[in-house]
Amino acid sequence: MSQAFGAPAFPVDTHIHRLAARWGLSDGRSVEQTERDLKALFAREKESWNRLHLQMIYFGREHCPARGHSKKDCPICRWAGVEAVNESAKRSTEKKKATA
Fold first, then answer.
1. Prediction pTM value
2. I need a labelling partner for 75 at 20 to 30 A (CA). Which of 16, 19, 90, 100 fits?
C-alpha cells in the first residue's frame, strides 16, 4: 500500500521488526505489535511513515546488520548502549543453561 499507492502505512518486515526491538522502540513480540508501537511513536509524522520505513531498512543494512553486529559500527546502538544490554541478556541465558 505504501510503496504502490502512497497510502500512509508503516509496513513491518523482518528488518523493521528486528531494528525496532534492538533499539527499544518496541518489545518485539510480534510484527503486529511492532507496527502499532511504531505508528504510535511516530503518529505526528504519519505522512512520513513510508519514507521512515525505508530509511530504517537502509540504515540497518549499512550500520546495524542482523549478523556480525558491532556496537561501534552503529551510531544508534553505540549511543543507546544496545550491545551492553544484549550481552547482559546473553550472560543471563548462559547462566540459566549452566544451572539446568
1. 0.71
2. 90
